[in-house]
Amino acid sequence: MGVGCRSGGRRHYNGVMLAQILAAGPLFPLSGSEPKCAKLDPGSLCGVLWRHTSQRWLATLASWGGLTKVFTIVMIVLIALVLRWLINRAITKLTRGKPGGAPAILKPLKERAPSAFLEAAALLSERRTQRAQTIGSVLRSITSAAIFTIAVMTILGEVGLNLAPLIASAGIAGVAIGFGAQNLVKDFLSGMFMMLEDQYGVGDVVDLGEASGTVESVGLRVTTVRDSAGVVWYIRNGEIVRVGNKSQGWAMVNVDVPVPFGTDIERTQQVMQEAADTLAADDEWKDDLLAPPEALGVEQITGTGLTLRVNAKTTSAAQWRVARELRRRVTEALDDAKIQSGTAIASTPPPVQPPVPPHPPGRT
Predict the structure, then answer these.
(1) Cβ contact 294:310 at 8 Å
(2) Disulfide-capable partner of 310 in 2, 185, 267, 295 (CB 3.0 to 4.6 Å)?
């Protein structure tokens, strides 16, 4: 029975509170008399706002069209943000790709990664990832700039601003900035084309003129190269006028052996060919050779002797170790055959002493 009394008392209390709220009037207090726009057209936005809020300033603002413009601007901003998010998400999805495979954004582009990279999956993955991320970053920046520029211009047109002088001023400012930052623009454009054309990538051994070495990172503005001495070079992409890539496709190893005049050329060439054939027949080295080595014969004649050449076509990654091994085998083969290699140093004749002049007569 006590529970029933408490429930009845709670319902009575709630009823009293509801009666007090209804007696208090509308949710918003009346703010002045009914505006003229609400009297003339009760079905308009002005009339609807007046009936539900009783706020004269809000209804009058709606009659001026200001609320409509605010709503339009908010919608423009929201549409721009949503569109940018959707495009950036699509670009990010294209640049990620599947594990172990090339990102989808790189499939239409030509890839010049050397075949040796297939054995180094981590290095190839890093090369692809860095290239895809750089291209994706550029695409995201371009799309964001385009979307927000269109949104800002639309908003300015919505508030009634004349865009013609603004566009003219922007054009003049763009020309001035272009002249002032032309080196920066040149660096970015050069880096973009290097990425698209895959001229070089992470892990490639390149010759960029003053700096040569292994590429450690490739950016839109700067390329980082570490040379054989361990020095890291930062080269602006706009300053790179030529690129020699030693890691694309295959390489040709040339070993030159100087011999003195009077050497039996035919026998020397035969010994060099036999030494090169032993390299090609070795199981440790035959996979690095793409074609049988060949002793070409006399390559150059100098004032001190002859130069004979033997070459071998190898993979780009193995060219240096193949060259060292081929030099070692050729040198040992020539020594075993008692063939002198290297140019002999010509002996220098003793200086001629000038004759002693005779003594003048009358002097001792």
Answers:
(1) yes
(2) 295
Measured CA to CA in angstroms, residue 93 lies from 106, 130, 211 at distances of 12, 15, 36
Coil vs helix vs strand at 214: strand
Give 159-209 pLDDT, tens digit per residue: 777 777 877 777 787 777 777 778 888 888 888 888 777 788 878 888 888
Cα dihedral sign, 66-69-74-75? positive
| Alpha carbon distance 242, 220 (integer Å) | 17
Interatomic CA distance for residues 46 and 62, integer angstroms:
5
Nearest-CA neighbor of 260 among 357, 345, 330, 185?
A: 345
Give the largest CA-CA distance in the chain: 168
- DSSP SS3 for 257: strand
Query: Are the C-beta atoms of 57 and 83 separated by less than 8 Å?
Result: no
Report the alpha-carbon distance of residue 114 to residue 319 in Å, rounded. Answer: 13
User: pTM score, two decimals?
Assistant: 0.52
**For residue 60, what are its two tokens?**
């009058």
Can you tell me the distance from the alpha carbon of 217 to that of 240, in angstroms, rounded to the nearest whole number?
15
Q: State the virtual CA torsion across 93, 99, 101, 103 in degrees, nearest 10.
A: 20
- Residue 251 identity (one-letter amino acid): A
Helix (H, G, I), strand (E, B) or coil at 245: strand
In degrees rounded to 5, what are phi and psi of residue 116?
A: -65, -20
- Rounded CA gap, 320 and 281, in Å? 19
Q: Which two structure tokens, joined as six digits, stand for 353?
A: 């002493």
44 backbone dihedrals φ, ψ, rounded to 5° = -75, 175
Buried b vs exposed e over 144-179: b needs ≥16 C-beta within 10 Å? eeebeeebeebbeeeeeeeeeeeeeeeeeeeeeeee
